[in-house]
Structure formats: structure tokens, C-alpha cells
Specification:
Layout (H helix, E strand, L loop, with lengths): L5 E6 L3 H13 L5 E7 L3 E3 L18 E3 L8 E5 L2 E5 L4 E4 L4 E3 L2 E4 L3 E3 L16 E2 L4 H13 L3 E7 L9 H15 L6 E6 L9 H13 L2 E4 L4 E5 L4 E4 L4 E3 L2 E5 L2 E3 L1 H4 L26 E3 L12 H19 L12 E8 L2 E7 L8 E3 L5 E3 L4 H18 L22 H4 L2
Parallel strand pairs: 1-2, 1-9, 2-5, 9-20, 11-18, 12-13, 12-18, 13-14
Antiparallel strand pairs: 3-4, 6-7, 7-8, 10-19, 15-16, 16-17, 21-22, 23-24
Helix pairs in contact: 1-6
């Protein structure tokens, strides 16, 4: 690494930004590289835990820890909103007036909810009859609403894709079924899952499997429903083609976009403010010294914490290659895995990448957790993941036997061409 001391600036201190900062700090001594992280608040929320809050299994405040405390010594943390990036000048402008120059920029500012883009969503009924559990305030409010709900129709609606953790809305529907069964009033509750997709999930095989699970639980599935309006007063969703779905309580996952500053940064993002990113190297398409991780990218991998985990290994190695003047590795294969809570203390696990959809079998090898199969061990895997998140994933630690590339050995039905990879 020639040319003197380098500066790496990381925008965003969530999952991807934190693990990247910690991995880079471990890779480079302080005298060679300065590492700074910028985020607008010092509260780091364990977002997967928000799923359980509406069902009385915890409070959102207990999912939050001090962000700056998650970084290794030798990482500077700046608490500020970002105004814009001028990548052609290698500069970041903060809203408090500070300016940061960099040799390498990492964008890890995730995805944001933009409910204002859907007509009526923030109108009458918001946080009274219409909720989202994707933010702490909404999850807490929904807990109170569900506790008081004893009869009627609950609709779970995905406004549009992509969204953070694509399986979370399905998990909510499964947990709601279990929740009302435990209360002894399930027969009084109509559950409806409304999605813009043509099935329950984005991948065909898993979509069929998850669709059958909805049917078995008596949860209605409405597909190819593109939500144009949410009428909280009348209790109805209206699609662009004129179809309507009525509800007494609506659980809506709003449209997602990238961070707002991306739209103010020339050449950086797409129409939804996600950063244009090479799907294999994780380098920004327009600027060679800008790298992107997690939900901030426009790649077709799922916007899930596991993806940021797997991307982190490739990202850090490619930053090292870049600083050393070496070619980048096209090493990220879209690997994602997710525990899917299915209710009654069970969950299933899905594991997939850009080319191979979720299949049955075992993960990470022929001896491992069951794939596409409900089990209690998968449920406990999800529950215990929170501890790994804080003490393993965020610190940037490697997990023996689990790498960035999706393993094939434990899967059943992998195409022959893919088995040779």
C-alpha cells in the first residue's frame, strides 16, 4: 500500500458498516489506515427482534445498544446526518458542516421506509388501525393493538419490493396464527397475506412450500396486488387495478428506498436511492474507490443481515486488493440464509444465492440444520442468533465452517451444473 497513510470513511453504523469497520481495523494497523464511521444516531437496534415485539415477546427498547460501543478501539465515530457525497472529489459533506476526505468510501446506510409514497398510508388510522412492525415505535404500538384485538380481519400487506428481510411479513402471519390459537380465538380471526409477488415468496420452490404453509394455517393469500392506496378510515387496501381488500387491522410493510443523501450525490444511486453496485465485487459501478454493503446496494441479493455478513468477507478483501493496486475478486455469489419463524416454537431455514434457490437438505453440510423443514432446532437457532449478532457478527469474527460462498454439499436437488461450482 503505497502513498502514505490512507483514510477509509464508512457511512452507516448498522450491521454492514459495523462489521466492515471492525474487520478493517483488525486488518490494518492504525499507523497505516484511519477508519471513521458516520451515523445519525448512537442507538443500534437489533432489527430482527422487532418481529417478536407485537406478540408480547419483548420490548423494542431492549433491542437497542450504544452504537459507538460496538466498534474496536482505533475507529472514530461521528454522530451526524449526511448531506451528500461528491465522489468525483472524494469528499463527504455532513449536515453539521464538517467535511471528510477519503481514499476509500464504504456505503452502508441501509434501506429506509418511505410510507409517504403510498397514498393514505400516513393518513387517518395510522398507528391506530394501520401499523408497521419494521420500526420500533410501530412494533410497540402493534403489540397493544393485537392484545386488544379479539375478532375481525387482519391483513399483512407488502406494498412493493425490495424490502428488508423479505421473509419477515410471512413470519408475522405465521406468528399471528399461533398467537391467536394460544389465545383460543383463532376461529374469530381472518388472516390475509397480500403481496405484489405472484406467490408467497420470490423463489419458486420456496414460494410453493411457504404457500402450502399459509394454506395449512388458514391464511388467505392474495397475489399480484400492487397497493395504490391504504384507506385507514374505511379499512381497505386498493390496488392499481381497482381490486380491494378490507381489514379491521392492517399490518403494512411500506415501500423501501436507499438513504436520502444518495439522491443528492451525483452518479451514486438509482431511482430509489439504492447505490449502483457490482453484484460480485461490491464496488460501486461509477466510482472505483467506493464500495457498498448490505441493504444500501441495488444488487438482487436479499436485503437481510446474513447477506451483509457474507458480503463483509468479500468487501474487506476487495478493499485490501484495491489499496494494494490488485484486481478485485468477483467472489460474492448472492449468498443469503434466513430462519423463518412458523409459530408454535418452530422455524425453518432457507439458504440460497443468485443462482440456486432455497432447496431442502442440510446447512452448512450434510450434517447440519434442516433446510425448508420446520423444526424446534431452527427456532432456537433464530432465538440464539441475537447473541451471535452482538458478540460475533458485529465484531467481525469469522465462523468456522461458514464462509461467504453458499455451500452446496448439504442440498438436495442442486442442478448438476451448479454442483460443479
Amino acid at each position: 500500500m503505497a502513498g502514505g497513510k490512507k483514510s477509509i470513511v464508512i457511512l452507516g453504523g448498522g450491521t454492514g458498516g459495523t462489521l466492515t469497520a471492525n474487520k478493517l481495523r483488525k486488518a490494518y494497523p492504525r499507523e497505516l489506515v484511519d477508519i471513521s464511521v458516520v451515523d445519525r444516531s448512537d442507538g443500534h437496534c437489533y432489527q430482527p427482534g422487532l418481529l417478536f415485539v407485537p406478540f408480547g415477546k419483548g420490548k423494542s427498547k431492549d433491542l437497542v445498544r450504544t452504537r459507538s460501543a460496538q466498534f474496536r478501539a482505533g475507529i472514530s465515530y461521528l454522530d451526524s446526518e449526511i448531506d451528500r457525497v461528491e465522489a468525483a472529489k472524494n469528499r463527504v459533506y455532513l449536515k453539521d458542516g464538517r467535511e471528510l476526505s477519503y481514499d476509500v468510501l464504504v456505503i452502508a446506510t441501509g434501506a429506509r421506509l418511505i410510507p409517504e409514497e403510498t397514498e393514505g398510508l400516513l393518513g387517518p388510522g395510522w398507528m391506530e388501525k394501520v401499523f408497521t412492525f419494521y420500526e420500533p415505535e410501530g412494533a410497540d404500538a402493534l403489540a397493544s393493538a393485537l392484545k386488544a384485538f379479539d375478532e375481525g380481519t387482519i391483513v399483512v400487506n407488502i406494498v412493493d419490493m425490495p424490502i428488508k428481510c423479505p421473509v419477515a411479513p410471512l413470519e408475522f402471519a405465521f406468528l399471528a396464527d399461533s398467537y391467536f390459537k394460544d389465545r383460543g380465538i383463532r376461529e374469530k380471526i381472518r388472516l390475509v397475506f397480500v403481496t405484489p409477488l405472484d406467490g408467497a415468496f420470490t423463489k419458486p420452490y420456496a414460494s410453493q412450500h411457504l404457500g402450502r404453509m399459509l394454506t395449512e394455517r388458514g391464511i388467505e393469500l392474495v397475489t399480484e396486488f400492487n397497493t395504490a392506496e391504504v384507506d385507514g378510515t374505511a379499512g381497505r387496501l386498493v390496488s392499481y387495478d381497482g381490486r380491494e381488500v378490507g381489514f379491521d387491522l392492517g399490518v403494512v410493510i411500506p415501500l423501501h428506498g436507499g438513504a436520502e443523501y444518495v439522491g443528492r450525490s451525483p452518479g451514486l444511486g438509482d431511482e430509489l436511492d439504492f447505490v449502483l453496485t457490482d453484484e460480485h465485487t461490491l464496488q460501486a459501478k461509477a466510482f472505483p474507490n467506493v464500495f457498498v454493503i448490505g441493504d444500501a446496494t441495488n444488487v438482487t441479493a436479499s436485503k437481510a443481515g446474513s447477506v451483509a455478513h457474507f458480503q463483509g468477507e468479500v468487501l474487506v478483501e476487495n478493499i485490501q486488493h484495491y489499496l494494494a493496486g490488485e484486481p478485485l475478486e468477483e467472489a460474492f455469489d448472492g449468498h443469503a440464509n434466513c430462519f423463518v419463524e412458523s409459530g408454535s416454537g418452530k422455524a425453518l431455514l432457507i439458504d440460497f444465492n443468485y443462482e440456486v434457490e432455497p432447496l431442502p437438505g442440510r446447512y452448512p453440510s450434510t450434517i447440519g440444520l434442516p433446510l425448508l423443514k420446520e423444526s424446534r432446532i431452527n427456532h432456537w437457532g433464530k432465538v440464539l442468533f441475537e447473541r451471535f449478532y452482538w458478540h460475533g457478527l458485529l465484531p467481525g469474527r469469522s465462523v468456522p465452517g461458514i464462509g461467504a460462498r453458499m455451500p452446496l454439499s448439504g442440498k438436495i436437488g442442486v442442478p448438476v451444473r451448479e454442483r460443479s461450482v
